[in-house]
Amino acid sequence: MPSGGYKASDLPPLVTDKPPNVLIVGAGLAGLVLGIYLEEAGIPYQIFERAAEIKPLGAIMCLTSNILPALEQIRVYEDLLKFSKPCRRSTFYTGDLKLIGSSALKDEEITGYDRLLFARPELYDLLFSRIPSHKIHMSKKVLSFQQNHEGVMLRFSDNTTLHGDILVGADGAHSSVRQHLYKTMGQQGLLPKADNKNMNKGYISLLGTTGPLDPVKYPTLSDPACESNFMIGDGSTPYTWVTFTVPGNRICWNVIVQLALAGVEDDQFKTSDWVPQQNKKMLDSIRHFKTPYGIMGDLFDESPIEGISKVYYEDMLFETWNHGRTVLIGDAAHKLLPSTGQGAVNAMQDAVILANCLYDIKPTSFENIKFALQEYRDQRFDLVKAQYSSSQFMAKLQYGHTFFERILRHCIFNWLPKTMQMWQLAKESAYRPQANFMPEAPRRGSIPITKQKPSRRIQEEQAKKAAATAAAAI
Known about the structure:
The protein is of the alpha+beta class. The chain folds into two domains: 18-83 and 116-199 and 319-456, FAD/NAD(P)-binding domain (3-Layer(bba) Sandwich), CATH 3.50.50.60; 200-313, D-Amino Acid Oxidase, Chain A, domain 2. 35% of the residues lie in helices and 23% in strands. It has helices at 29-41, 68-73, 77-82, 107-111, 120-129, 176-187, 267-271, 276-284, 296-301, 343-359, 366-399, 403-415, 418-429, 456-473; strands at residues 15-16, 22-25, 45-48, 60-63, 85-86, 89-94, 99-104, 116-119, 136-137, 142-148, 151-156, 161-164, 166-169, 200-209, 228-232, 239-246, 250-258, 290-291, 294-295, 309-317, 322-323, 326-328, 334-335, 364-365. The protein has an eight-stranded mixed beta sheet with strand order 7-6-15-16-17-14-20-23. A six-stranded mixed beta sheet has the order 9-3-2-13-22-21, with helices on both faces. Strands 4-8-5 form a three-stranded antiparallel beta sheet. Strand 21 (322-323) and strand 22 (326-328) form a beta hairpin. Helix 1 runs parallel beside helix 10 (343-359).
């Protein structure tokens, strides 16, 4: 197999009626959801994860009606409800707890689903448990891959290799699959200039989740709905700190700093690797920040130190998502800021649409594979592009500290009519993809839903069956 990209061969193209063998690199949310859908579709797959053990960030996570029907379709939704809380209101304060404004929309009445908040590791564990153990392989770091019209070959750091029909890069923002693919395409003069840029780093965050707290001391923990609070520092304090109540009498917290406005005193915060030995100085410098529950330091003291993480808020929308037999999904293709809570949603939507396109591959041939992977990109790119812009806007609204961003926040919370908010919610909630080769989840909500693109394979099979029936009747 030639090194790098695919090229013509004297051998005839391989065509088979068997479904393609899919190699998924990355056992994050996108890779796991894709695996679950391929399991439902009867498409062979294996998942390879470079880490010996996945330890998801103990951060808060939000899922909306854009992905909850798909999770309901694969029987995950009911279990998700057991460890989540509906979020129906977010309140914004100054650093001194003066009210800026609030956002309160009853999503369920419009979309049919509550906006659900929970600690990220719990969803990860749930999805991981749905993958048969023999189909997921840990400590498998990909060094390189080769692809041509006959197949794709993965080479791992343990000197093993594996052949398949399709390679899926679901290995995150710093994807090794994407890096190797782009290097090869660059050498061939096929990579757009836009894909050579580095990801933007606009914010950095410390985040964690407390252990169980006393509901007497923290009464809002007893509320079945999530309490969401954003505290935004003044012009001399480029920080936003956020708290969310989650099941188990716990509070998820997040402290975000806008790097462009961070002073010299924040150099360690900006550049240090996050290790337990360095965390005390960082946390001590911000523990006095006020919250409705007291100071942030009270929450720090109740949070397991090993679960506190430092994360850059990076963003990038790559142009190239597929080439030959290789395709990128989730953060490997598009890294969104977490301000809209849509990063994980879009990653899982990628998995749903890619599963649909892979199901339509019949017979399995190089041409049909290339068509399916391009079809996936065509269906998703413009939608993700819109979400990318939205996440940047919402980051300014939630985390921004420039004069313009403060004026913007005041206008949105005080002058934007509720009818406009309702219209925007309905518009954003209309797209909710599901697998088109499975029975749909029950239709919920009162708003029109974006029409799902039907399975080409199922349509062709139905047409052939109808034609055969008609011929037999003659």
